[in-house]
Write a structure and sequence with these properties.
Blueprint: H1 2-15, H2 22-32, E1 37-40, H3 47-62, E2 69-72, H4 76-89, E3 93-96, H5 103-110, E4 116-119, H6 121-126, H7 128-135, E5 145-147, H8 151-160, E6 167-170, E7 178-180, H9 188-202, E8 208-212, H10 216-230, E9 249-252, H11 258-269, E10 277-280, E11 293-298, H12 305-312, E12 322-324
Parallel strand pairs: 1-5, 1-6, 2-4, 3-4, 7-12, 8-10, 8-11, 9-10, 11-12
Helix pairs in contact: 1-2, 1-3, 2-3, 9-10
Amino acid sequence: MEDKLEKCVLEAASRFGFSLKEKQLEAIMTFMSGNDVFVSLPTGYGKSLIYALLPVAFDLFKEQYGSIVICVSPLVSLMMDQKAKFLLMGIVAEFVGEGQLDSTAIEKVLHGDIQLLYISPESLICNPMYRNMLLSPIYKNKLVALATATKHTFRIVCQSLSLREPVLIGCLPDRSNIYYEVQPLPEIEEFCEEIAKELKEMGMEYPKTIIFQQNYSDCQVMYRILSRKLGPYITFPPHHPKHLEFAMVMKYTRASTVEVKESVLRSFSDPKGILRIVLATTAFGMGVDVADVRVIYHWHPPSSLEQYVQESGRAGHDNKRLRYGG
């Protein structure tokens, strides 16, 4: 049985052109063997691929069609980014919750015409339509939790999800391609002046950069200063109309519209995208997979070490060397 299980998992991965890492294969095999699983792996390891392959792997193993995996996430950015990525791979993914206004997508979810569903906790708790949906015969009662987590988070998640003797699969969060620098905090005008000068000189050669802020107001202040110092260079080519698709600097916060969020994710994820700098809050800090981010700044300290690891780990997913700017 184990040989058949491994064969089905490897075939599911090969269909999408993936060669599974050791911990990815271990997590999928352990879960499909009937165990609750807690996966704690470094940012950029490929945790999302573990649950994304499960529908196809289950279909192959059970010789059926229609397996569905549900991913509960509080982050709209993650849901939108992951949905777009997996749809391109041929995995039928959809999300429901804040920002989902497409009634066709919601109907598709209710009828189970998907393989991978992203849903917000608020939708599960507050919307009876989705609670009843999970009780329907269409949806399977299986649980898997994936995260970059501390021991405290591990205990809380296991207790909250009532995981029964969960198998812990993980490894150290060290990322050898990340180089950390601790710098004195300059005046915001001075910092923005240096960023604007380099962006003007380098243009599209400027490395993709995320500047994490504590809140929306901080993002707004820095964006206004950068806009003033960049002038016509806020877009590429310079002097171009200030449309989203030409922006070199954008904000990503909970307050951003769906249109802006989609534009940021689309441009920043595209290797040829124009967007060079994202001013972001924690809303952009978890789960967003952009391979070629090279520089990350924290303008103020994160609220926890866990958040620090998560946000600094947004960079270097292609394993190339990068600079983390403290």
